[in-house]
Amino acid sequence: MTVTDGSGDLWLRRFHPAPKAPARLVCFPHAGGSATFYFPVSAALQSDCDVTALQYPGRQDRRSEPNVDDIGVLADRIAPVVAPLFDRPVVFFGHSMGAVIAFEVARRLEEQGHTPAVLFASGRRAPSTRRVENVHQRDDEGIVAEMKAMSGTDTQVLGDEELLRMVLPAIRSDYRAIETYGPVDATVKCPITALVGDADPKTTVPEADEWRSHTTAAFDIRTFQGGHFYLSSRAAEVIALMREALRGAVAVG
């Protein structure tokens, strides 16, 4: 079941609505990803919290909308949509590009007095680190090759030429957004937990550890066996961490 927020805003997805849950989990997809990536997380945690996933413009039912190829613009647009969710403790989880968007949204919300209980930054090096990347400048075949190498896109999509051509503009836009972002030295007040695969070609463990310089609160780092999408094979462990953080947030109040 897909549920948007009460105003019909298409930014938010609730697959298993839990309006009376004591806490909320807000999930931010990776480059080329959509809210449905977090359907399994929602199914697993529906008895613990209200799981909400972001749906960026340019994909699935928002395919007719213009893509947004700037992280700051995305964060500016997302922050006011997420702010009303802070009527109870909120945990942010972002994977890859989603980790950076979650960080930038947290920065904006903290200026309004809304601080996440925890920010999980998964599969992404810290904002202050820098690599020269140009996937967004490649031709379509080059972008598809990158998607296959990262194993982050449904194989049915990669094998369906018509569907693939439909989603490539959004994927290119996402890569442009994340590859032109930073470096940024800002901090947030909320605790950060960095999650990283030990064989991730996009993020080394030292690069993930640099997230510690972006919080004035507690920091933790967890390393998992696997590549960029380690969380697909280590889902049970990642979900256990989320559940622990959510229960801790409720206990603190």
UniProtKB/TrEMBL annotation:
Pfam family name, one: Thioesterase
The keyword Hydrolase appears for this protein: yes
Alphabetical keyword list: Hydrolase
Positions of the Thioesterase TesA-like domain: 26-246
Record InterPro entries: AB_hydrolase_fold, TEII, TesA-like, Thioesterase
PANTHER family: S-ACYL FATTY ACID SYNTHASE THIOESTERASE, MEDIUM CHAIN (PTHR11487:SF0), THIOESTERASE (PTHR11487)
Family note: Belongs to the thioesterase family.
UniProt-recorded name of the protein: Thioesterase II family protein
Source species of the chain: Streptomyces longisporoflavus
